[in-house]
Amino acid sequence: MKLFYRHFGEGQPLIILHGIFGISDNWVTLGKRLAEKFSVYIPDLRNHGQSPHSPTFNYIAMADDLLEFIEEHQLKKPMIIGHSMGGKVAMTFTLEHPEMVEKLVVVDISPRKYPGRNVHFDMISAMMSVNFEAVSSRQEVESLLEQSIPNKRIRLFVMKNLYRKTRTTFDWRLNLAAISSNMDYVFDGVESAETYNGPVLFIKGGKSDYIQDDDLPLIHRNFPGAQVKTIENASHWVHADTPNELCHLFSMFLGKECSIEEMNPEE
């Protein structure tokens, strides 16, 4: 599957993978900062953004997409950053192809299986309930979402998936049917007996429960040399809450000073 992507900069290749319901746009601000030294690729994962749709939606398929992407663009030993679902894609790929990855960064997710979370199901239900034949503006769509998604930040995050399909109609870029029917796979764990002995950094949001102390043995089983760092004031959406602190941790681990004076949160 040929993924849509955004590219910035030159140098050693660095790939950034977004989370569930995300798009490449979410990481453009950080990507441009990292592009001061690296050749940064930010793809839309399958069924997201402007990438193709497929009824198949699981980590094995998305890791295969990433392999095709790396081979198509002839990227040698890329570093990979993955957030949430993108972190599990990155872990899956790295354990399948350890010789192809220079460094791995996983943002606020562990390899374990997670129980389903109401916030995700509420987001899917709210998006699928919008009747696009009855709306004529982005404001109307946001108003319809407000009852099911009262948190404005999450609502705006969802709204980034809205696009104008024709001059008078809107639609979601997400393949909601495929995502909805495969959500069990999204919450699945990364099942592998393999190890990756290269440099690995896990970054935890201090206000998030996605990485817990009980996860550390599992993390170190597959990634023996992994460091785990916490950004205290961040929720699960670390890149939106604390982009400067996140950029600093990327800098320390990747060996690149990430300038922060113009950093702005990206939803």
Query: How many structural domains can be distinguished in the coordinates?
Result: 2
CATH architectural type of the largest domain:
3-Layer(aba) Sandwich
Q: Which CATH top level class of the largest domain fits?
A: Alpha Beta
CATH superfamily of the largest domain: Alpha/Beta hydrolase fold, catalytic domain
From the spread of the alpha carbons, the general shape counts as globular
Query: Order of strands across the biggest sheet?
Result: 1-3-2-4-5-8-9
CATH topology of the largest domain: Rossmann fold
Described by strand count, sense and barrel closure, the largest sheet is: 7 strands, mixed
Distance between the termini: 26 Å
> What proportion of the residues form beta strands (DSSP E)?
5-15%
Mean pLDDT: 93
Number of strands: 9
Helix- and strand-based class? alpha/beta
Spell the H/E element sequence.
EEHEHEHEHHHEEHHEHEHH
Helix content: 25-40%
Give the number of helices: 11
* Poorly predicted spans: 262-267
